[in-house]
Amino acid sequence: MATLLSSGIVRMTTTTTTFVLKSAGLFKAKGFGGGSSSLFHPHHRQHMDKRRTLKAVTNSNSFSSSSNTNRAKKKATTSDDVEKRQRMTHMAKVRASFSPSSSSSSTEEKMFTVQHNLESLSDKIFCNRSLPMKSIRSVGFDMDYTLAMYKPETFERLVYTKTIAKLVSHYGYPKEILKSFQFDETYMVRGLVIDKKRGNVLKMDRHNYVKVVVHGFKAVSTEERLMTYCDSSKVGTSFTGNEYQAMDTLFALAEAYLFCQLVEMKDLVMIDEKKKKNKEYEKLTNVSYHQMFDEIRKSVDLCHRDGSLKTEVAKDPAKYIVPDESLKELLTTLKTSGRSVFLLTNSLFDYTNVVMNFLISGKTGEEKNLDWLEYFDSVFVGSMKPNFFTQDNNIIFEVDAKTYMLKNTDSGGPLTPIGGSDIDHVSAPSSSKPGDGENTYDSKVYQGGSYVHLMDSLGISRGSDVLYVGDHIFGDILRSKKTLGWRTMLIVPEMDHELEVLEETREEGVLDELKQLRERRDELDYKLQKIIFEEKRQKEKEKMAKTSEEMKMVEQLEKDFETAKLEHRKKTKEYHERFHWVWGALMKSGYQNSRFAHQVERYACVYTSKVSNMLRYSPEASFRAFSDTMPHDDSSP
């Protein structure tokens, strides 16, 4: 469970139980080939229409309201109603968790709020490695899914639809998918791994032991899972080769969902002789799962390169981005505490200007200005992370924030404007040092470059003086920490929902019940195996046969053990489905931490659900990790 210690810092000590995936069949509507048909996980249609009526993202007036918005639940009268309610509640909570909120208290109150006064677990910053903020001289932020939280039901859907269009126009996929495929933004979660060779999606624990496998939207049997993934001589143990793709960012969820749909569509085509001969489906009959995923990835890249995504966001930022009224206060608080603040993003300046204007001042279109730059000491765009952290000789350009022109070139070269395409655009050659051109904002905006340029611009030489806040385990956190020694804060928006479910299950005594059931099961198993072993040993020594009384005792123990095992399995399944009906808890896989949780623990000094939680702590706060424990540390004598 989640334990709040006297220091006010929360330590997660939850012991969850083995997740049993509910087998999922394939839903096929009105014939596969018809224009009105669609491929869906069978549960999708039960809640998609009603779910759309929910207001998924809210901009509340208090930090805690986002996690409390959906606590009220209607009483269900049937098991189907319960299932639908749980799905809709899950989706609404996740959506609400993406909505940063502002506090009505004064800046001074926020700055000096101590940890034990935090209202809920979702307000907290969790610590893996002790971090004294007094040692931090500069705080940096990624933009996408860190400062800017995107609305999954609109932004991910935009990525999804644009990607499908590219698959049809550039790679020859059936035109049917333009109409028949529909997107469910609640299905996929971070931390999964895609097996591109076999068309599967995997969830594994911190030991890379695969616990859940889904092919398309159908659960793979335990026997097939064990045979395919639990023999390291066949598949290895790292799952990091070219055959695998880790879903490390929220940007990856839409493409992963599309991959599952195409896997199911391909499988159906391959067992239908008529469709196999139909030229409309020729692409699916010839393409491998591996190639299919790679073409989805390339299509997503095309959407970014041709400007089709950023053009739509620029037209109506409020449709795709969650407003955050606390952001200005956070940046101001950090600067007034004597620290420098920087922005480091892979997005180019034209798009960065759109997003930051909306976040800082709510300005869009012709109203945009450059006032938001005042909140940062340095801004690095088009940074090409993670290479930014590993190569010190990257070319750097100075960006004229007013004209979008690249300086430090022989003749100057403009950035590609929103609505344009940079597919054929070649940047002018550049020197590797900032130039001396005039800039209204003291030449603080750069494109490209490396950590050397950034740290020079901030006047910092020691990596441990920098705290970098981002959402990408590998792009933001791992490289900056391992290569440069930066301190790191990982943003995990999904934590709001995870923590709310943890609090609910703790209050209801679910975790205690699971613990008791597990202990009962293990105790019966221990007694049964001990009796069987003793009887076998006695029989070998004295060649005695079992008495009827002994046989009855063994039979009763076997019966009791089986009953306890089934009850524990049932309750465990119900517990995991409260987090997500397919994948369970984000940070757990069975009793073990999940692969994602292991990465968070290993690479992030601290982690939290949103950047606005930083306002809950003093800029001089010290985040302290707890003592590491091993199983024997908690053992009774």
Automatic annotation (TrEMBL):
<feature type="coiled-coil region">
    <location>
        <begin position="514"/>
        <end position="574"/>
    </location>
</feature>
<dbReference type="GO" id="GO:0008253">
    <property type="term" value="F:5'-nucleotidase activity"/>
</dbReference>
<dbReference type="Pfam" id="PF05761">
    <property type="entry name" value="5_nucleotid"/>
</dbReference>
<comment type="similarity">
    <text>Belongs to the 5'(3')-deoxyribonucleotidase family.</text>
</comment>
<dbReference type="InterPro" id="IPR036412">
    <property type="entry name" value="HAD-like_sf"/>
</dbReference>
<feature type="binding site">
    <location>
        <position position="142"/>
    </location>
    <ligand>
        <name>Mg(2+)</name>
    </ligand>
</feature>
<feature type="compositionally biased region" description="Low complexity">
    <location>
        <begin position="58"/>
        <end position="70"/>
    </location>
</feature>
<dbReference type="GO" id="GO:0046872">
    <property type="term" value="F:metal ion binding"/>
</dbReference>
<feature type="region of interest" description="Disordered">
    <location>
        <begin position="56"/>
        <end position="85"/>
    </location>
</feature>
<protein>
    <recommendedName>
        <fullName>5'-nucleotidase</fullName>
    </recommendedName>
</protein>
<feature type="binding site">
    <location>
        <position position="144"/>
    </location>
    <ligand>
        <name>GMP</name>
    </ligand>
</feature>
<feature type="binding site">
    <location>
        <position position="471"/>
    </location>
    <ligand>
        <name>Mg(2+)</name>
    </ligand>
</feature>
<dbReference type="InterPro" id="IPR016695">
    <property type="entry name" value="Pur_nucleotidase"/>
</dbReference>
<feature type="active site" description="Nucleophile">
    <location>
        <position position="142"/>
    </location>
</feature>
<keyword id="KW-0378">Hydrolase</keyword>
<keyword id="KW-0460">Magnesium</keyword>
<dbReference type="InterPro" id="IPR008380">
    <property type="entry name" value="HAD-SF_hydro_IG_5-nucl"/>
</dbReference>
<feature type="region of interest" description="Disordered">
    <location>
        <begin position="417"/>
        <end position="442"/>
    </location>
</feature>
<dbReference type="InterPro" id="IPR023214">
    <property type="entry name" value="HAD_sf"/>
</dbReference>
<keyword id="KW-0175">Coiled coil</keyword>
<feature type="active site" description="Proton donor">
    <location>
        <position position="144"/>
    </location>
</feature>
<keyword id="KW-0479">Metal-binding</keyword>
